Amino acid sequence: MAYRAAVLLGWMAIAAAMPVDAQTVTIDLLKKEQEAEYKLGPGDILKITVFKQQDISTTYRVDGNGEVSFPLVGNVKAAGKTIQQFQESLVNKLKDGFLVNPSVSIEVTNYRPFFILGEVKSPGNFPFQAGMTVINAVALAGGFTNRAAKDDITITRIVDGKETKISATHNQIVMPGDTIEVAQRLF
Fold first, then answer.
1. Which domain does 3 fall in, by range?
2. Paired residues of 159 in beta bridges
3. How far is the C-alpha of 112 from the C-alpha of 114, rounded, in Å?
4. What's this model's pTM, rounded to 2 decimal places?
């Protein structure tokens, strides 16, 4: 995970030095990387489609326990899994006496929100959008206050079940469930 974060930070530094057209391509690559590594969590809304099974193909919410209550198989653990991992576990449960060779596709339709607090004009929780950076999040929160330490920003993120604090730049990628804190400057 740390390696991937270092790679993302490296790509962001390279993107900042590129012409605008090249930056757009690099940002698209960052979005794809972000989505590939995304771990599901409580509050995410998933569109689950089971081929030729329209009765159970609909949207589901990951509940507070990190599970999806799915017809036929009951609760399936989703929190902490990538979309691919969750898809595989759901397929395995459906194979276990319910469907022959099930084909399942999963898409996140609504990500859980992120939170921003501290020296922004409208702190609170906001809907996540893929490819979002810290500066985008600050903009959603109404911008910095006059007392903001614009270069003293911390992201608190759950990584492998542990709370991790990250010293963030303006171009740092934000993930759903992150808490962004903008510090107050001294003078």
1. 1-37
2. 162
3. 7
4. 0.69
